[in-house]
Amino acid sequence: MRSEESCLLEQPLQTAEGTLTRRDRRGGSFVGSRVAEATPLPECLGTPWWKRGCDIVGASLLLCLLLPFLLAVACYIRIVSKGPALFFQRRVGEGGKHFNIIKFRTMDVRPEATAEHRVYVERLTTQDAPIEKPDHTNRIIPGGNFLRRNSIDEFPQLLNVLIGTMSLVGPRPDLLEIEDYEPWQLRRFAVLPGMTGLWQVSGKNRLTFREMIQLDIQYVEARSFALDLRILLKTFSVVVQQDND
């Protein structure tokens, strides 16, 4: 008999479309955002000792092993483009608290990036179709596509894991703000966000926003050491096969 974790990885979508509703949009603001703001966030479930232990040991070992490589990547970014090697971006984490996620910078720094992001958020949360990322071809630094395709740009997030703002496995920390979510979607904030998670190994960009949220919530409800291990192994397979679509 297959374990529950296997079922989550192989057949993760158990939708309940009849009970889920999507907010309309009027004048660029979410109808119902006040409801989302007034709805208390779900109680944080905390981080089990085994999970925090795995995060500390895993992140420490990986940082030690990868340190020369990470320094080389940082130097390369500084050489081929103007600006810092690292990119800090505000994300929403456990309990709705903000934190700065750390990544290698793969794009030129431009002031219009914030406006472009808001357009992407509006499209992301309203269309019921697989997500298409914005075309940043003209902003990608030399070698940036390689870093992104192989998820190398996300390696600095091991520092987030080490300091406790992220976990190795968990719901992906989104760029969205709390008010961009419907009340039922806030369950994903009951645990620490992760470097990888259930939807990243279940289709990633082939999924709709609704499907990704459902997978995040499924992880929250079913998280265990065995499920984390399966997701980590599956992540390695996805990166090696470069199945990022």
Automatic annotation (TrEMBL):
<protein>
    <submittedName>
        <fullName>Putative sugar transferase EpsL</fullName>
        <ecNumber>2.-.-.-</ecNumber>
    </submittedName>
</protein>
<keyword id="KW-1133">Transmembrane helix</keyword>
<dbReference type="InterPro" id="IPR003362">
    <property type="entry name" value="Bact_transf"/>
</dbReference>
<keyword id="KW-0812">Transmembrane</keyword>
<feature type="domain" description="Bacterial sugar transferase">
    <location>
        <begin position="51"/>
        <end position="240"/>
    </location>
</feature>
<feature type="transmembrane region" description="Helical">
    <location>
        <begin position="56"/>
        <end position="81"/>
    </location>
</feature>
<comment type="similarity">
    <text>Belongs to the bacterial sugar transferase family.</text>
</comment>
<dbReference type="Pfam" id="PF02397">
    <property type="entry name" value="Bac_transf"/>
</dbReference>
<dbReference type="GO" id="GO:0016780">
    <property type="term" value="F:phosphotransferase activity, for other substituted phosphate groups"/>
</dbReference>
<keyword id="KW-0808">Transferase</keyword>
<keyword id="KW-0472">Membrane</keyword>
